[in-house]
Design a protein that fits this description.
mainly alpha, 48% helix, two-stranded antiparallel ribbon, globular, DUF3631 domain-containing protein
Amino acid sequence: MTTFPSPLDYLAGALHQDPPRSEIPHHRALPDAHTEVQRLDQQLLAQANRPRTGDGGPLESLIDLLVERLAAGAELSRLLATTACCHPDTCSQAAAPHSDFGNSPSPDQHDDDAGSDEEESFSSCPKDPPGLQCVVRAALHVFDVVGSPESMASWDLVDCLKDLPGLAEDRWAYAELNQSRLAQLMAPYGVFTRKVTYDDGRRPRSYRRKDLLAALPHIER
């Protein structure tokens, strides 16, 4: 599967001296979601064709993939049924109340009573990192808040990220994230879920802190 724009498209744009154009997030989400569905379809087919063993591991992996595939398909269906008629600037203005810490009132602008309540949430924590729209930095912030564990189950990380304000990668509000969306946002950074065994014997798909930290050098600071 190829991505768009590809190096050939960048070359064509340079030859024609076309000015760079801002993508509309909703439009970009459509091919990304379709690519995710295709990727999971290929993984499902490959997993289904593998020889069976008696330990039940392949079946568990197949079920996990099937759940991810169904979630990705539902997300693609939702995007296809959603009307998008806004220019990117209009979308940014509409999302302004949830955009970033840069647009949020400073702690000095809140009264003492409100401040005490807000300190308990991610959205007003004074240690929140700048550039909250970066999903990797947001995930690392969550890891720090919960005690810097080596890994977090995908659904646990999603539940924590939902408490954050703003838009993740300028695509989805953190409050609207699910496991499939988070996987799509993490993939460009080379961060993927892994099967991690916890003390209680569970082996959920999880995000590892070291993978998130490894992605930081690739993020423009």
